[in-house]
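WARN no homologs supplied; continuing
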Amino acid sequence: MTSIVVTRQVLLVPGDKRNRILLKKITASGMDNETVKTNILKIREEMKLTQSEFADRLGISRNAFRAIECGQTKIFNDNINAIAAVAGMTPEEVVLGYKPVENADQILREEQSRYMEEMAAMAREYEERLQKKDEKIEDLKKQVTLLEQIKAMLEARLEQDNSQKDC
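OK structure emitted
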């Protein structure tokens, strides 16, 4: 017997009588019966089965299956478990409409680590650029100082030349 995570904190254990409260908890967490019914319809269509064929595999009448698929019957976990078995899926896949990632926490940690490494590399690159900018500014300040000194020398020379011409 395996446990299947259906929502963040709800566990579905096949065959457990407490499963009947699952759909109420799913509804409370944002998953509604309409979504589950839509998922069941998609599953049946992907399997290219008629309602009668799917109902036969479930061991129920076509009308009973139609009532589940159309929303005229509340879906209990016994039905979800049976539908999952016929479709070759987990009950979680039937409810959610997709196959959940089994090692999501590990993937999240890896992505977070990768993101942090990228951010650190970007920060280093930014710091290097700032350092180069500061160095360039200092170089430009030195050039301005030198140009001002050259200008002052040229002005002094020009003044000296002008005073010699006046004499």
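Strands lie at 4-5, 11-12.
OK
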